[in-house]
What we know:
Distance between the termini: 23 Å
Number of helices: 3
Mean pLDDT: 91
Radius of gyration: 18 Å
Largest sheet: none
Amino acid sequence: LKLEQETGASIPAAEVERVVAEAMKALAQTLDTLPDVLERDAGISGETVQIVQRVIDSVRESMYADMVKLT
């Protein structure tokens, strides 16, 4: 196991958890800002922004449920 770690063939679980957490945080921040970006840059209406927000919320809940199943 030590040889695998030294050669990079094995990654410690804590490192994997840290990287996945950072990736999920970046994804969440992007999803949080997406409705505003679409409203500003694409000119979508307030009603459409609400629809986009509901879809994002649903996707996030689904992603969370899938991640919980993995643990």
